[in-house]
Amino acid sequence: MDRKVAFITGITGQDGSYLAELLLSKGYKVFGMVRRASVDKYERISHIMDKIELIQGDLLDQYSLISALKKAQPTEVYNLAAQSFVPTSWAQPVLTSEFTAIGVTRMLESIRLVDPKIRFYQASSSEMYGKVLEVPQSEATPFYPRSPYGVAKAYGHYITVNYRESYNLFAVSGILFNHESPRRGLEFVTRKVTDGVARIKLGLSKELRLGNLDAQRDWGFAGDYVEAMWLMLQQDTPDDYVIATGETRTVKELVQIAFDHAGMDWEKHVKLDPAFIRPAEVDLLIGDPAKAKNKLGWAPKVSFEQMIRMMVDSDVARLSA
Ligand code: NAP
Ligand code: F7E
């Protein structure tokens, strides 16, 4: 039987936790890279800690990546680690580039050095489309990023393609549109809304302060999206894929669904706060997942409404405990 060993950077994040679960269920030996912190941040993977192996490393430290790969000897690397919150990329643009852009080159160079047969997945983003040049966005749509995060991800995408073409690596770029879950970070808008709704419902808070309610996103469920990451590395040839639902919703629709589910009127609680308006906005994202459907046989299973209700229920349960 073929050896199945995965190395996941960003395993403590939302996607890392779902991907680790998926790969364990497929019989993989799973290694995760973690950076040191003074507090415990293993909440999302606490239920699988006895099944995975963690190795210290940081995308800023080339040597740590090389020695982690030598230790794990993976057949597949999933590079999910990044500074992933768009507003922070304006506050810390240089650090964002170091993690999210140059970090990809460090990982690719480490693979070239340790074992060029390793298959490599790069977590690219719909933020690369930014001020969209085409609707819907496909693999052929040109990029026009609107944040330092989007610019860094575009670099990560192109360096992945370049290493595939220059060195014949099995390196793929998954261009994933927004995907959410009860494990989403609290600062991202879906989770901020479902956590806010739960707090108001339970009398822990009275209002929810938000920015641009007219922004449109193509939102899917993270559990569905990690399946696509895995599928990309199981193909005969490496290629890049858009992963999306093909449907777009406004932030206002998200708010309505979440408040309705809790039996409340959003207009009584939501306040607009200019602090959450971005220096440059991505107004409309809608992906075309036709290639992923045709070539990978991938399709999302959880609808937007189901996911938002699941997130509200999860936050109510968590805050009631
Ligand atoms: P997330 O929850 O923010 O997780 C990010 C992970 O990266 C965390 O495990 C974090 O570790 C780790 N990390 C950050 N900087 C690091 C560094 N210098 N060295 C090592 N690890 C580092 O992100 P996510 O939502 O799971 O997203 C996963 C990836 O997909 C990211 O690259 C993101 O940019 C990309 N992406 C996400 C979406 C989405 O909608 N979720 C869409 C497209 C692309 P700590 O726990 O130590 O902070
Ligand atoms: O914002 C608007 C905001 O922060 C979505 C990351 O995973 O997906 C994510 O990036 C929209 C924006 O995600 C608030 O202006 C309104 O238009 O949830 P978000 P994002 O910026 O789309 C992409 C694909 C990634 O790759 C990223 O890593 O919601 N919005 N009011 C708000 N957003 C936030 N965070 N907070 C608000 O109060």
Tags for this model:
321 residues, alpha/beta, Rossmann fold, UDP-galactose 4-epimerase, domain 1, 2 domains, 7-stranded parallel β-sheet, two-stranded parallel sheet, 41% helix, globular, binds NADP nicotinamide-adenine-dinucleotide phosphate, binds ligand F7E
Topology:
Layout: E1 5-9, H1 14-25, E2 29-34, E3 53-56, H2 62-72, E4 76-79, H3 86-91, H4 93-114, E5 119-125, H5 148-167, E6 171-176, E7 179-180, H6 189-201, E8 208-210, E9 216-217, E10 220-221, H7 222-233, E11 241-243, E12 249-250, H8 251-261, E13 270-272, H9 290-296, H10 304-320
Helix pairs in contact: 1-7, 2-4, 4-5, 6-8, 6-10, 8-10
The protein binds NADP nicotinamide-adenine-dinucleotide phosphate and ligand F7E.
The site of NADP nicotinamide-adenine-dinucleotide phosphate (NAP) has 25 residues, from α1 and β5.
